[in-house]
Amino acid sequence: MAQLITSDIPRFWEAFRFIHAPDAEAHMQRLYLDAGTAGVQGFRPGRIESAAHLVRVARAREAFYGGIQASSLQVMGDVAPQLDSVLEGFERLFPGVVLPDIYLVIGAMNSGGTMAHGPDGPIAIIGLEFFSAAPDTPTHELTPWERGVIQPPTQLPAIIAHELVHTLQDIPDESQRSLLLYTLAEGAADYLGELVSGQTVNPALHRYGLEHENELKAEFLRDILRGQSHEAWMYQGQKAAGHPADLGYFIGAQIVRAYHRKFAHHPAVLRDLLHFSLRVPEEFTRRSGYFGEAWLARGLHV
Questions:
Q1: Which residues contact 183 (CB under 8 A, 6 or more apart)?
Q2: Disulfide-capable partner of 146 in 85, 110, 142, 289 (CB 3.0 to 4.6 Å)?
Q3: Which residues form the DUF2268 domain (predicted)?
Q4: pLDDT of residue 299
Q5: How far is CA 159 from CA 164, 184, 191, 205, 213, in A?
Q6: Does 302 fall in a domain?
Q7: Residues 173 and 197 sit within 8 Å (Cβ to Cβ)
């Protein structure tokens, strides 16, 4: 049975005590990175990066990090019942499914979670700094994007479910990944995670997407036809311009939602959302009917 691993949280706060010490990086390295679990190690590439990077980020947002310390430690005790509910949701949708452990870590304000490969297989990792905000948490040091994506601990079931879905997907290697495949991988995790937890990962992004859905569909189709890379729609963070970041998550979830509604009577439909969507993304999208005749009219036939 999946376990929740929270031991990295107090380790981070022990290192954070030395944030202004001349040797702060050495403390962060010794107390947090070197002593950290597989979750910390899996969160280092492209996220935590190094002790120097994490100290630099935490110093620039000292009031915010200090402001979430108490709530992040409280989460360690409060999240267990939420996790039980998520695991029950997975068992309901995918009877007999085997899920990996979930690690809560503190990162560098650039990722709310990921799936990584631990010593014994896939693991789910959550960047708890994104899910520890309270109404009085200081946010004046944060960028507009950071202020827009931090959420309270009540949203943890949604992100845990999302990352656990990723551990069940067979995502092709990077040489085979396209904008559509990235979109469906994240969209399936968002949609199935919502079925499991009853929550969307980013409610504000979902609201924006619904309000602008027709224009976003047209833009997405245009970018597919142009061979646009996924950077225009995914993993943008503070680099997004003109729209909120990461709207590919919304488009992907809507494609997956449309497929589920259309084939809800098929007994294997949920497995299709996990696997068929990534094995033949163009055919999955066509069958979903989400783009209607525009999918073929724009030359995107399979």
A1: 220, 230, 233, 234, 248, 249, 251, 252, 255
A2: 142
A3: 155-264
A4: 56
A5: 8, 17, 11, 14, 23
A6: no
A7: no
| Segments of the chain with pLDDT less than 50 | 300-302
Non-local (6+) Cβ contacts of 249 within 8 A are 183, 186, 187, 190, 201, 202, 205, 234
pLDDT tens for each residue of 91-144:
999 999 999 999 999 999 999 999 998 888 899 999 999 999 999 999 999 999
Task: Identify the residue whose tokens are 């019942």.
Answer: 81
Report phi then psi at 26, rounded to 5. -65, -40
Single-letter amino acid, residue 212: H
Clarify whether residues 155 and 182 are in a common domain: no
Question: Taking the complete model, does pTM exceed 0.70, yes or no?
Answer: yes
Q: Specify whether 29 is located in the same domain as 153.
A: yes
DSSP tag of 187: H
Domain assignment of residue 179, yes or no: yes
